[in-house]
Fold each of these.
Amino acid sequence: MTLDAVLAFCALCLLLELTPGPNTFLVLRHSLHGARAGVVTALGSALGALVWASAVAVGLAALLERSAQAYQVLKVAGGCYLVHLGVRTFLAHRRASSGEPLTAAAPRMPTAFRSGLVSCVLNPKVGLFFLAVVPQFVPAGAGARGTLLLGALEAGVALLYLTVLSHVAARAVEWIRRPRVTRTLDRVSAAVLTAFGVGTIAGAR
């Protein structure tokens, strides 16, 4: 694979990351409680991309291309998970508002990692990206190894971008850290995640 092809693929991955999606808002939501939580979420998302790359390499993800029902099931599952995250965020915010310390809404690291991983794995658009776009960059004869290599590149680009986003968001929160602002951002992130989930479920019909 030539250097020009690698750079072109990385540029495409970065362009896709710049388009806001569920993982972006998950990272932003967790970064409200510190850059570390956002970075851990980004690590989960990057691992999810590697899972998709592996699925494509062994031919499992081709089911999405051949079966509209499989695509819809995965899309509904992903939407339900996002709704679950949004509702859980809202309930955590309500508990904090009822008198519990604000830090009670802060995510634990395993929870942050799992949310990034599951959100990416249950996002069929990531699978379709590896099915439709990645093969165009895989060198002739590279086969599964080429797909896994490009998957690692995509995961690396996503991790780098989301890590930078985590630190920027955490620094911004530290700059304007006030209980009222944090509560508002929690409510907004809960609403956005829920809206993503509902929209995903509706789009699967």
Amino acid sequence: MHTPSAPILYSFADPNNLVDSLARFIIKAQKESIEKKGRFTIAISGGSLAQQLNGLIGKPGVKWEKWQVFYADERVVPLDHEDSNHRLCNDELLSKVPIPRQNIHTIDYSLADDIEELADAYEKELIREFAQKDAARFPVFDLILLGVGPDGHTASLFPGHELLSEEDRWVAYITDSPKPPPKRVTLTFPVINHAARVAFVVYGPSKVDIIKTVLDKPEQGLPPSRVRPISPGQVYWFTDADASAKVEYPRTPFKL
């Protein structure tokens, strides 16, 4: 087993610089992935993260037709519901760029009455994209974008929840989410930790204490601290000055 690399922390005084730098980072990851294997696989979480992706709109060098978009987690609600991660990402980004609709992989809400079947169906979406092409035990996403909740959850992996110990499934379900809506599906740690890159995007003063705990006290085992992609994978943190104000963890100047 390869030893995980230490996280890289970027902190931006200007929120606009964070958005622009994140866009440049994503485009570079996309370019390297397409050159290597002809496609770019990305998983996106919900919450406020989607709002930070609009820096991609109109940027040169984005090959939308090569993107395969999945969701790191999703709330089990209709896709046009205000709680849907897909709706948020669609409103903020996907509806504004020429990405083929068939390259956007959503949950099948028609299966909502049987959440286990719904999770299995979404796992099969991943299998169609990854297992047939990469022959890997777990999918290797080119990039997974995650946020962090004030309670320390990421994707729909909550502190103290039994899903934190899931080792086999690619997609798991939760029916007792500590924050509404209660029914969700989520990528598991084995999937997240096999990614080539994982980037947390966190901003605002409401996150200042939880980010300090995650980065300065990883031994507490909060879910984001458990995101340590196996080598050569790498985890990055894109934060603003408010979110990282109390963090003692060393910052790295952003450059590509």
